[in-house]
From TrEMBL:
Reaction it catalyzes: all-trans-4,4'-diaponeurosporene + 2 AH2 + 2 O2 = 4,4'-diaponeurosporenal + 2 A + 3 H2O
Name listed for the protein in its UniProt record: 4,4'-diaponeurosporene oxygenase
InterPro entries: Amino_oxidase, Carotenoid/retinoid_OxRdtase, FAD/NAD-bd_sf
Keywords: Carotenoid biosynthesis, Membrane, Oxidoreductase, Transmembrane, Transmembrane helix
Length: 510
């Protein structure tokens, strides 16, 4: 379809979508394309949610995801909503080097974007036989991906899903729900650096690899099998393009507007009340907000469904958060790849600190450091500068029982510590910094209304974590959840999958 149709369509239902993150934008566009009347309400003055963008003196920074995986999921979204092809507005390019890894022993691995080249690169960097070990593990990961894609990632999570999975003995044996990601990896990978490489993928869901389920092996499989991609101008452009497409489909967008309550009656939802006291009526409400905020703050305490959902959430572990540095650099190192991970000397100590084991949660003294350094003239004022995004895992903001990231001087001291650690690991840019912006977990909480700044809502810690994550159909009739804190989880592809699940359910109900 090259153009939107302009004929009048019968309105099926009135729908309010709370939150204009990628999940909210995607579900709003899908529902409007189905013929529903959609109002999208966002508390911030801009769209994007955790897919944020920061402009600093001619530099453009993605403050959320900086890597696009499973681009076919984004393509499917644009196909479903119609209009010009995705490539017209969001051309994607595959990275030749998916990521550079610097290990504690000083060994450097450039992991190729082409999966066929990965075994050879592992043998060259880590020693003969490492490629075969990783390939053997990836074969198991592929079987896990195949077993979980349709019945789990692309479908609502409910009792029928659990029963269906439990009856398929072969799939259950493949997924091994009784094993952790690290436990599964240990049975295939003898080199501690390969196990460290695998552990990192647990952080994609804000989790601890020692407790995250073996099913998360599907994450490195998907990244390596389908490639690592980038959008020139930054991934934040996804949100702005989706906004334009949604508006072209007739979605009414209200920015800088806060929902104070989801209104219900004996039959279910009936709309939302805004902070100015006005009411927007709706047949369905879709919340692209943290599930904890939805059930604890946006629904009244006497709503039985909200009480039961809030109790369930209390049984989960919040995901990790992140401490971010945005570095505007003069004359950045010329050989820096798009993504670079500088591993911690003691990964277990990092996870203990972030999740509050062996004491209270605390900033990690020597964390793993993730650097995104896109080679993209669209995000810098000239070709002699760089816009670097630096991230370390961090405990959520929790002044009462964990870390108070607003404590005087903590942000600045920790930022200096991270830069010193980068230098010690061979990536010293301290004398090249023109501007430095710090985003702490407390800042993330304020920006996204996510409790503690927990990036993924709840973690995947524990064998039942996926089933404790809020389902897309809430216990309150007519209320649906979309986004990283609900099924199937966080990250751009899964958030867009959740949008499709919700749109399909409402389409069937309405």
């Amino acid at each position: 379809m090259g153009r939107y149709t302009d004929y009048e369509r019968e309105i099926l239902s009135k729908i309010v979508v709370i939150g204009a993150g990628v999940g909210g934008l995607a579900v709003a566009a899908r529902l409007a394309a189905q013929g529903h009347s959609v109002t999208l309400i966002e508390q911030a003055p801009v769209v994007g949610g955790k897919l944020g963008v920061e402009h600093v003196d001619g530099f453009v920074f993605d403050t959320g995801p900086s890597l696009l995986t499973l681009p076919q999921v984004l393509e499917d979204l644009f196909t479903a909503i119609g209009g010009p092809p995705m490539a017209d507005d969001l051309p994607v390019r595959q990275l030749e080097i998916a990521c550079r890894y610097t290990f504690p022993d000083g060994v450097v691995l450039d992991l190729p974007g082409d999966p066929r080249e990965i075994p050879g690169a592992l043998d060259s960097a880590l020693g003969p036989g490492r490629g075969a070990q990783w390939s053997s593990f990836m074969e198991r990961a592929e079987r896990i991906w195949d077993a979980t894609l349709t019945p789990f990632l692309q479908s609502p999570i409910d009792l029928r899903t659990m029963l269906r999975l439990s009856r398929r003995l072969r799939d259950l044996t493949t997924i091994a729900p009784w094993k952790s990601l690290r436990g599964l990896g240990t049975s295939y990978l003898s080199d501690p650096r390969l196990r460290m490489l695998l552990d990192r993928y647990a952080t994609y869901t804000g989790s601890d690899p020692r407790r995250a389920p073996a099913a998360l092996a599907s994450v490195p499989y998907a990244e390596q099998a389908f490639g690592s991609w980038y959008i020139d101008g930054g991934l934040g452009r996804i949100a702005s393009v989706l906004l334009s497409r949604a508006q072209a489909l007739g979605v009414e967008v209200r920015l800088d507007t806060r929902v104070s309550e989801i209104l219900t009656d004996a039959t279910g939802v009936r709309g939302v009340q805004l902070s100015d006291g006005s009411v927007v009526d709706a047949d369905f409400v879709v919340a692209n907000a943290d599930a904890q905020q939805v059930f604890n703050d946006l629904l009244t305490p006497d709503q039985p469904g909200a009480r039961s959902a809030a109790r369930r959430l209390r049984r989960t572990t919040r995901s990790l958060s992140g401490f971010v540095l945005l570095l505007a650099l003069d004359n950045p190192p010329g050989d820096q790849p798009h993504h670079h991970v500088l591993f911690a000397e003691d990964y277990d100590d990092e996870f203990d600190a972030v999740f509050g084991r062996k004491g209270r949660a605390r900033p990690v003294p020597r964390p793993t450091i993730y650097v995104s350094a896109p080679s993209d003239p669209a995000i810098t004022p000239d070709d002699q500068t760089g816009a670097w995004f630096v991230l370390v895992n961090a405990p959520p903001h929790d002044p009462a029982e964990g870390v108070d990231w607003d404590a005087p001087g903590l942000r600045e001291h920790y930022a200096d510590q991270v830069l010193d650690l980068m230098a010690a690991r061979g990536l010293d840019v301290s004398d090249r910094i023109r501007h430095r912006v710090i985003i702490s977990p407390a800042d993330l909480e304020r920006r996204t209304l996510t409790p503690g700044g927990s990036i993924y809502g709840t973690s995947s810690n524990g064998a039942l974590a996926a089933f404790l994550r809020p389902s897309n159909r809430s216990p309150v009739p007519g209320l649906y959840l979309v986004g990283g804190s609900s099924h199937p989880g966080g990250g751009l592809p899964l958030v867009m999958m959740s949008a499709k699940i919700v749109a399909d359910m409402i389409g069937a109900a309405g």
